[in-house]
Amino acid sequence: MGSEIIFYILSALSIFSALVVVFSKNPIYSVLSLIVCFFSIAGHYVMLNAQFLAIVHIIVYAGAIMVLLLFTVMLLNLNKESEPHKSNLIKVAAIVTGGLLMLTLLASLRTSQLPVYVSPTDLGLGTVQTVGKSLFTDYLLPFEISSILFISAMIGAVVLAKKER
Amino acid sequence: MQETIQVAQNLPSTPQTWYLILSTILFSIGVMGVLFRRNAIIILMCVELMLNAVNLLLVSYSSYSGNLEGQVFVFFVMVVAAAEVAVGLALLVSIYRNIASTDIDVLSRMKW
Question: Domain range holding B46?
Answer without folding.
Answer: 39-100
